[in-house]
Fold this protein.
Amino acid sequence: MDKPIVYVTRTLPEEQLSPLKEAADIEMWEKEDEPCPRDVLLEKAKTADGLLTMLSDRIDEELLKEALHLKVVANLAVGYDNIDVEAANKHRVICCNTPDVLTESTADLTFALLMAAARRIIEASDWIKQGRWTGWGPYFLAGADIHHKTIGIVGMGSIGRAVARRAKGFSMNVLYHNRRQNSEAEEELGAVWVSFDELLEQSDFVVCLTPLTKETKHMFNRSAFKKMKHTAFFINVSRGQVVDEGDLYDALVEKEIAGAGLDVFAEEPISKKHPLANLPQVTALPHIGSASKETREAMMRLCAENIALVLGEKQPKTEI
Ligand code: DGY
């Protein structure tokens, strides 16, 4: 009997896909750092039993209605706003993501970005690289303190809690806003639930970790930035479309807020001409939240395991 076919939308190391080796014939898009073109994905999906996708691949009705053999989509990300889960349910396609394995690495990056933005670390490093360091002055590259300040986490899931644990190590006061209160964060970390407006008004660092949904799209808009302190920083490690980027740009230029650390953008990748990336008070990163080698490989293995489980008619480990 023919083995099921799994299409992987990037070149991944074969050893990380070993859970799938026996279970399926694996085909991969031949590039590691370039997305699989839409027309190739649509064509491959027509014959695939499983897809291992990246967050840049759109899995929607157009693809699903022609994917007559498809049983499982495993997305190499915890966020899955690229997948129309309702349409997948309708077509009886099981969708999986990669929670938990990336929690600590993403929290590390979130805190690193917060620190880089507050203490102007990238800008300071550039002073040396550009040969501009000619002396010392009392306000030379002076940034903002982090310790003992208030961090406000919007989206207190497992990554939010891991960020809050790091914040506690810096003696920070932790506020959070979620639709539901998170008793673990409250009991373990003394985090305090506040309304969205209270969080904006009281936080020195507003950290966005909320998933992108219809409800959260553009939740950080002009009216939200106006409520923040003039000395506050906005840090986004969730999805770019949670922010109205034009409004963020205006808030920064008009000094309604002090700065921003951005790992994500509305349309990725951005070019060096992107207005936000050109502001000195913005630290911009190319969506590297979970990008450590160990974590990315754990994510690959989890995707492969989930696909193998579904193809073997078993329950996957992390179904969406
Ligand atoms: C995710 O997994 O959703 C992250 O954005 C990847 O870095």
Notes: The chain has a mean pLDDT of 97. The pocket of (2R)-2,3-dihydroxypropanoic acid is lined by residues 55, 77-79, 102, 287, 289-290 (CB under 6 Å). The first strand starts at residue 5 and ends at 8. The domain at 103-284 is CATH 3.40.50.720 (Rossmann fold).
